[in-house]
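Q: Could you fold this chain for me?
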Amino acid sequence: MILNGLPGIGKTSLARGIADSLMAKGWISRWASCNGDSDVSSIAEMWLGQSGWASPEAIATNVNSSRTLLVIDEIQELNKRHFTNVENLLSEISSIKSSVLIMVRAPSPFKELPNYENIRLDGLSYNDAREILPSDLDEDSALNIAQSLGGHPLALHLWSPKEKIPEKVEAVQEYVRSTVIKRLSGEGLETLDELCLSPIPLSFDELFYPSGANELDNSAILRWKSKDIETHHLIRNVRRNDISLENSHKLNSQMAKKWSTRQGHRAKRMEAHFHLNSGKDIDSEWLISNLSDIINQDSAAAAIIAEQAVEISDDTVLRETASDIALERGETDVAKSHIKLLPDGPRKKLRQARLARIKGDSRLAEKLDLEAMRELDNVEGIKYEISTLVRLYDDRLPGPIDPTLAAKINKRINSLEFSNLPSEQKNSAILSLHLLKFSIASELQNLSVAASSRSLLESQLGHNHPRLRILDLRSRLFARENNAASPESIEAARNEIEKCDNLLDKISLIHATLEASGTNYPQWLIDKHSKISEKFLREDIAAYRRISAQKWFWRGLLEPERKLSHWRESLDRFRKAECSNAANELLKRISKII
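A: Sure. Below is the predicted structure, expressed as structure tokens.
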């Protein structure tokens, strides 16, 4: 069901009443409230209390339960950048056992949604409106006020006995403009403008103009979202419309300077937003640097900023960044729309190849890769080939490596030519390749090749480098009897996991130990995996995307009662990580349990 109506008409209050009534009957209520940075993942996190979900299909599977109410409030607050994915989520949950209630401000930004009933919420009847107005108000005045404000609940709450009865012809918006906002002090207006300009709710401590907050709260202008505050959207919309473009540019410029004095990805997100809305030219280098910090923690916000930037400036580097963010998030339609506008050349072909892999067209991806490699210079070509070989090695589900795949990778490693590389790039390339050769040799128990690669790694890294300790341990874990490593190797892995500070290494080592445990997973290892699964994994680095897909696969094995939802999430993430072989194999396994 979709509940729509004007801002402040009472959609949220009605929904809370419905949720409370159902919970009193033993139902479960899962509530999500959107803001300007919300996307599918944040909605799922609000519903489930767990981060990391991104696949609409997996989310729908996980919340599929009778006597459960799924609520999405303020869905119109979504940035248009994330509409399509949220529409996909709405489509997925429309056919599950759970009941769904969506609140949206009229007019709705969504087209007609199949399987949803649309209900319009209008103003209150006089009897209900009378309950909001002061009890000592005479009936004639109360009736006039209720009729003048169209029974609008928020407007009725905002009316003060000190004010004259509004004219009947006066629209609610005009009443807010001429009465509610007009009565605010200078401090109240400063805080109001700061909140109205912000793309997302703010905590009180984040306000640069906090002195008017109490006045706004006492005037029923503020809405509280957990610890964050924003203005009621009716008031925000009226205030935004009243600010001239010139003044808006000035205010946004001031706020950009203020946020530039703060640290952290959220501060950079806010600074970037205000800078883009200040009317000033975009410094592409500065913005891309900021985006790299933002996406490290919040890819949804980074996607919005990148999209806004290319709408303002058709800069090629900015468009490449926007396409890369879309590829990393698996948003193929968005990525395609940007890639097609890039100038022809190897950089465009490499992105087209990535897009083809995410969509499962490996043959086209290989063709585009080969064409691009012919056009890249030697340094870039070798760098890309190494990243390709690492991806090929990772593109599989847990289990022994196929000897054919191992031979293919080793053959391509041996065909690489480093003689023309500068010394620094040459050493880095050799290090990466010997790490890969050592891993393959250890899996195949080819001890002579493993020893040779390890010797070269030690000469480059140094005798006591922690990476060598982890490599040696992984090599021990590959030595198995009856499909399981020795108890001593498992215990050594436990000690190393405890000491390891690098998140990627730690998760990888946990996965390797799980695989080396056969089918009898130690409880301490299950607990370690459960705890580390809560950690945020950035989406802008390929290795993290691949380990995230593996993490969800293992969660499906370790939590068999939720195997289907976890494996669907894993499938989605393997595709985003361009691991089509792993995705295809997992899809076969999923089809067997549906």
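A (continued): The first strand starts at residue 2 and ends at 5.
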